[in-house]
Specification:
By secondary structure, the chain is α+β, with helices and mostly antiparallel strands. The strands form five sheets. It has a four-stranded antiparallel beta sheet. A four-stranded mixed beta sheet has the order 12-11-10-13, with no helix packed on it. The chain is globular and about 45 Å long. About 45% of the residues are buried.
């Protein structure tokens, strides 16, 4: 049984020290325009004050359920990353030569981050894998850099595509849904990560994206899975967005 939704706290004043970048306006392959937005450069950590923070030094805040992640973002003055925003990031980075192992878009694999089981837990943003196949940084079209779009930890996602007002999946994945129609290559190929087929029904669950440190080929910028929203997973964290530009 899913845990009841927690009452959303009032939004706090955003921190002036958290590290955010700008994702430029992005048009998905189906024509959906995702306006420019600000997003945490790193997956959220838990600050000394107990609130969500975006730093290079802190390890990702895991063992936090979906409702708690939404509330933690709001309490810090932010919002949880949405599905359309996550797709905008993934699509944008997939169009940059620097994010492909072969040095050109479509050549080799799209970077997959920490995914080969070379570590035994979620890592802070300062960690660099000795394995070149585990490069964690992705470059956007505007030159901004974002860490852990794939690998290290999954992140909870507010579903604004097939979700309800609470951000939970509310219907089957239609073949035209950008959630599964946006990846430029099939599931588990060329660094896409795993994503479901049309017709899959995860109603009542929450979306998670990216993969974790041992996901192997299931990790990727387009990796899409689901989780029980009331459960605190050791491999699932969250990423915040910042209102306004």
């Amino acid at each position: 049984m899913n845990a009841p939704a927690a009452a959303a706290p009032e939004a706090a004043a955003p921190s002036t020290t958290d590290l955010f970048i700008t994702v430029p306006e992005t048009t998905l392959p189906n024509g959906t325009v995702v306006p420019a937005f600000r997003v945490g450069q790193y997956v959220c950590t838990q600050g000394a004050d107990g609130k969500a923070a975006v730093t290079a030094e802190g390890k990702p805040w895991v063992r936090i359920n979906f409702e708690e992640a939404k509330a933690a973002c709001i309490a810090a003055g932010y919002a949880l990353l949405t599905e359309l925003q996550a797709l905008a990031i993934a699509w944008n980075v997939s169009l940059q030569d620097a994010n492909w192992s072969g040095g050109k878009v479509g050549d080799g694999d799209l970077r997959m981050g920490l995914h080969k089981g070379t570590v035994y837990g979620a890592q802070a943003g300062t960690y660099e894998s000795p394995d070149a196949d585990e490069q964690r940084w992705f470059v956007l079209s505007n030159g901004e850099r974002i860490c852990d779009v794939a690998g290290n930890v999954y992140t909870w996602i507010f579903d604004d595509v097939q979700g309800d007002e609470a951000g939970l999946v509310a219907k089957r994945f239609d073949a035209s849904s950008p959630s599964i129609a946006t990846p430029p290559h099939p599931s588990m190929e060329q660094g896409m990560g795993w994503y479901p087929q049309a017709g899959s029904d995860w109603s009542g669950d929450a979306l998670v994206r990216g993969g974790c440190w041992y996901s192997e080929a299931r990790a990727g910028a387009f990796s899409l899975g689901d989780g029980w929203p009331g459960y605190r997973y050791g491999v699932v964290g969250f990423r915040c967005t910042q209102p306004g530009l």
